What we know:
By secondary structure, this protein is an all-alpha fold. The protein has a single domain (2-174), classed as AhpD-like, CATH 1.20.1290. It is 73% helix and 0% strand. It is built from 9 helices and no strands. Helix 2 runs antiparallel to helix 9, helix 5 crosses helix 7 (117-130) and helix 7 packs antiparallel against helix 8. The two termini are 26 Å apart. 45% of the residues are buried.
Amino acid sequence: MEKLDALRTSLPDAARDIRLNLENVLKPATLETAQVYGVAVACAYAARTPKLTEALIAAAKSHDVPDGVIEDAKAAAILMAMNNVYYRFRHISGKEAYSQKPARLRMQRINQVTSNKADFELFCLAVSAINNCETCVRSHEATVLGHGMTEDHVHDAVRIAATVHAAAVGLETLDV
């Protein structure tokens, strides 16, 4: 947690709200600790902010989050980097012809999770929210709910995604 606390306090004054929010959204409520940190790590990878990713992984390990959760978070960010672009394009192009074409993109890892399928889908959902892919958000939300999670679980995951993304933006402003 030391790395994460130091990173949080390094955020500029313009991100004061994010400092507090980052601390608050990482406290388990409806989500279990592994889910909280899996979502956060996936979103940090998606935000392409190594310092934030490293700090969140260190915090996850300090809370005994299994390595498989971290690997699934990484895989979710990577797969959604591809899928969110592809499916967002199909959606925003507005052309039915593109929706009729097979994706022919390999996505085997989605079915080969190291933690559990429901959590992996939750990580994918959070990353898809950051990447603004409506098709993927809808698909992953339906799967998450189908695995017995609730809208409160989804809501908390997206709150984490929004806050981690904002923290990444705040950290980028330090380099400008």
